[in-house]
Amino acid sequence: MATGIKDKVAILGMGCSKFGERWDSGSEALMLEAFSEALGDAGIEKSEIGAAWLGSALDRINVGNSAIPLSTALRLEGIPVTRVENMCATGTEALRGAAYAVAAGVVDIALAIGVEKLKDTGYGGLPVMTKGTFNDLWMPYGSAPAGFAQLAAGYRARYGISKDDLKRSIGRVSWKSHQNGAKNPKAHLRKPVDMDTILNAPIIAEPLGVFDCCGVSDGAACAIVATPEIARALGKHDLVTIKAIQLSASAGREQGTGEWDGSYVQNTRNAAKSAYIEAGISNPRRELSALEVHDCFSITELVTMEDLGVSKDGHAWRDVLDGVFDGDGEIPCQIDGGLKCFGHPVGASGLRMVYEHYLQLNGRAGARQLKDPKLGLSHNLGGVPYNGVCAISIVGLEGI
Questions:
Q1: I want to staple 348 with a disulfide (CB 3.0 to 4.6 A). Which of 14, 114, 124, 271 is the partner?
Q2: Structural domain range at position 191
Q3: Could you check whether the bond before residue 332 is cis, i.e. omega within 30 degrees of 0?
């Protein structure tokens, strides 16, 4: 029987570039920025890395269709290097490849890196359906805001929530993230935004306003992993280990049947259930210390709280307004600012989320440091709620 990878893989080191409109840097420079931090943190020589995985989803201009840009940027001579892509789950997919290789005993030390120069692709979030553009490949069903705005309509209809109450709750989601992002020097957007500004911003796709949508950014993030035994032999203490990595992809049920009412994301519920089993978590709201979820839009984060089981169905909007997920709340969410403040360079986001948990668990998060964190969950959601892929990773202190 499969036993999963809980505590079989330790994180030796992590790194993250500054996210933003990085016109001054190409993909190779961003990868090097993240890798240099991770390598120094891991305390190893580059020659000790046995295999590497590169995650990049959209940037065919800089990255292309192979892993060669990673090999050349980091001078990874003579080792297997693999490029992966799985929509917004791409960064987590790279981590999964590296972690599985270590857990299987194929290599002692592995590298996972995700990068995207999204500004270079011309992607703007509201694609014009022009034949042959990258946006056609990414959004064949229309725009991302329109796809995710349907969650708001479905959620309101199922639970009978007023338009004003839902608008205030998703506004609070964005407000909270901007408060947190202001404390993070690597975030793209670092200015707190007041509730009135958020609630009165121009509408993009009802009820989502400008501040309910994450931005378009460039960035890279990186992890170096090994077995706990190797980590301890290198002098590492209080190890951060991987508890679970799980994925779930749509198989057509949401689009092909009348079962789905638009108020939840089934893939998140599937992946969460599997991740909790693998990690040995029975009460996520009580056991998880922090969340990094895929807040591509504020309504997505709100619904995700229920899909992850940290809010009861129909209660997440109240939990949000009650401050449950604020930086000083019961279970902080997006303590680093989330996609809302980092933007979403697709290949990097999953690893950037784990990077924040890694800093928190090591007590190195500076002004946003949480008190005594033990377990952190990261969540990515690619595609649209009715046709996509979800990835969930859980990391924590060894033995927890």
A1: 114
A2: 142-210+243-397
A3: no
